[in-house]
Amino acid sequence: MHGRACLAADGRAAKFSSIRNSAEAEYRLWSLEDSENCASNERSEVLKTDVEIFGAGVLGLAIAFACLRRGASVRVIEKRSVGFGASGGYIGALAPHAPDPWNEKKRFQLDSLLGSAAFWKDVENCSGKNPGYSRAGRLAPLASERAIKRARHYSAKALENWGNRANWKLVQASDCETWAPESPTGWLVFDTLSASIHPRRSLLALASAITNLKGEIVEGRTEGIGSKSTILATGWEGLATLEEELGTSLGSGEKGQAALLNFCARKKPLIYADGLYVVPHDDGTVGIGSTSERSYALPVATDKRLDSLIRVAVQTVPCLKDAAVVGRWASIRPRANSRAPLLGRHPLRESVYIANGGFKIGYGIAPGVARAMADLVLDGIDRIPKSFSLESCISKSARQTPR
Ligand SMILES: Cc1cc2nc3c(=O)[nH]c(=O)nc-3n(C[C@H](O)[C@H](O)[C@H](O)COP(=O)(O)OP(=O)(O)OC[C@H]3O[C@@H](n4cnc5c(N)ncnc54)[C@H](O)[C@@H]3O)c2cc1C
Fold first, then answer.
1. Which tens digit of pLDDT belongs to each residue from 65-120?
2. What stretch(es) of the chain map to CATH 3.50.50.60?
3. Which of 75, 91, 328 has most ligand 1 atoms within 8 Å of CB, for mutation?
4. Does the Cβ of 85 fall within 6 Å of ligand 1?
5. CA 84 → CA 20, 25, 238, distances in Å?
6. 57 lines ligand 1 (CB under 6 A)
7. H-helix or E-strand containing 204?
């Protein structure tokens, strides 16, 4: 039997443990001591599973959930533990790109954001656990007359591209009481599409929902056990492996650091200012993120860059001044050269599919990715935007390569 821990179909012995490993600040979202649960894996070796998914980050788990909801048998295989990678952090902003220029990536993101409430409600119903979803919108300061003019333009474009499902409007900071970013012009933009999720709780809910629906999660393993189809959702490491296999550049990992503050801003909007996110969660904490680092020596260590980010957060949202920092975290985002998600068939391997490239929007697009991958893998229906394909990423990579 491989794997130090596995989750069985009934999920009886699954529990939250959050054990820290001093070497890499590793934490385990799940542990399982009940060895009899592992028997279900041995049974599955005889019966071929429909879909085996490698990687228990938000993409792998969301796809597993969607496939189970459609009646497929599913096994998730995770190298370390659920949520070990980029998904296991503090931020969870589910926020749109600006509504102009409009393209298929933004259309996909819009559909996914609009579908998020139903997706996470379903996860909650199947798991009995609250993933911490809340749609309270997003406030961003408008620093100049030029920014105000651009925001008015985006307002009109949101109406055109989002219809009446959400809007992008200008509001005065003075109307927002203390929960607002500092704004030199006194104006803010408020979009009503943005929402938030509690990343760690949402993964716990997904993992519970999967086991309740008779899916398996096997931790501490990298080899497959046997399936009709395979999906690789292995984050930045998966990008590196794929590059080696295809002999071409596809992307890389980009480090991000984030902090968790003790501050109650339940049901308040997210705040976004100049790359900084301040995200209220319903458990009385606020996530602050994130740094963007292309080169780094220590992938999961935090450092003074995070201290400066926290200082900027307090300058931007002064009511956070006395909030205690209760968590510091770093991880590596999977960034494709196209900056778009990478979804579709593996170009060399039969019945193998790829779900990667979530970069900074992995949580926001997870419901859409889950649906699109389940359509493709289970029903052979390909609704994935062309710009998310491996071919598109490879051709973008070739254009970016200096001669
Ligand atoms: C600091 C920070 C802040 C962020 N903030 C946001 C945000 O506010 N909103 C948002 O939408 N997104 C955000 N993101 C991005 C988002 O977290 C990622 O896009 C998303 O987590 C990617 O999910 P994933 O499942 O593809 O990868 P991961 O979560 O990295 O999961 C990949 C998993 O695969 C496993 N694995 C690797 N190799 C193998 C193998 N061979 N076999 C089996 N398993 C393997 C890993 O152990 C890992 O658990 C943030 C990221 C960071 C780092």
1. 999 999 999 999 999 999 999 999 999 999 999 999 999 999 999 999 999 999 99
2. 5-90+200-251+338-400
3. 91
4. yes
5. 11, 10, 14
6. yes
7. helix 199-212
- Is any atom of ligand 1 closer than 6 Å to the C-beta of 333? yes
| pTM greater than 0.70 (yes/no) | yes
**Nearest ligand 1 atom to alpha carbon 80:** 47
Q: Is 170 exposed, middle or buried (0-12, 13-18, 19+ CB in 10 A)?
A: middle
Task: Pick the atom of ligand 1 nearest to 364's CA.
Answer: 11
Ligand 1 proximity of 362 Cβ (cutoff 6 Å): yes
With contact defined as beta carbons under 8 Å apart, do 20 and 193 qualify?
Answer: no
Q: What is the pLDDT of residues 122-158, one digit of tens each?
A: 999 999 999 999 999 999 999 999 999 999 999 999 9
CA of 122 to the centre of ligand 1 (A): 22
DSSP alpha helix (H) spans, 247-360: 304-316
Residue nearest to atom 27 of ligand 1 (CA): 235
Count other Cβ atoms within 10 Å, centred on residue 121. 12
CATH homologous superfamily of 5-90+200-251+338-400 equals FAD/NAD(P)-binding domain (3.50.50.60)
Looking at 3.30.9.10, 3.30.2350.10, 2.60.40.420, 3.50.50.60, the CATH number of the domain 132-195+253-336 comes to 3.30.9.10
CATH 3.30.9.10 residue ranges for the chain:
132-195+253-336
